[in-house]
Design a protein that fits this description.
It is a single chain. With 149 residues, the protein is mainly α. The chain has one domain. The chain is 76% helix and 0% strand.
């Protein structure tokens, strides 16, 4: 395995790990519930969530530098993390993923696991919409890792 391929793998795993930590452990209830709302309150909640995401991703990359001797061009890191931040912000407003799902024939899949109208009998993050959201993020983390390496 080439050094560059190994470095790409390390960067992708780092971006994936920090993404999962931020989305599921660090993101506050306020951010999670407010980031999808219209107006400045929604945009601000989403922005603070995404900034936290980018800062933790940068910290993870710094660990690779300090502990494993990885070398990254600062401009590549800045561009890669900007791609991560912008694409995460877009997806977490929720409507862009819903729009994309509807336009690509994934609307029924996105609705899987959603409580029935008038019933709160199935609250779950295990929805089709959640899977589409996460795969969107993972695809862009892949692109970001390619840019960084």
């Amino acid at each position: 395995m080439s050094d560059r391929l190994a470095e790409f793998a390390a960067v992708y795993v780092t971006l994936y790990t920090t993404h999962m930590i931020v989305d599921h452990w660090i993101q506050t209830d306020h951010q999670a519930c407010t980031k999808i709302k219209p107006g400045w309150a929604g945009r601000l909640a989403n922005t603070t969530h995404v900034l936290t995401h980018v800062v933790l991703a940068l910290a993870g990359l710094m660990v690779l530098v300090w502990q494993l001797g990885a070398v990254f061009a600062p401009a590549d890191v800045a561009i890669g993390l900007a791609v991560t931040g912008v694409t995460h912000w877009i997806a977490d407003r929720r409507w862009p993923i819903q729009w994309l799902a509807a336009r690509t024939g994934r609307g029924r899949f996105a609705a899987l696991g959603v409580p029935r109208p008038g019933h709160d009998d199935n609250p779950s993050i295990g929805t089709g919409a959640y899977v589409l959201d996460q795969t969107w993020h993972l695809a862009w983390l892949f692109v970001s890792a390619l840019i960084i390496v």
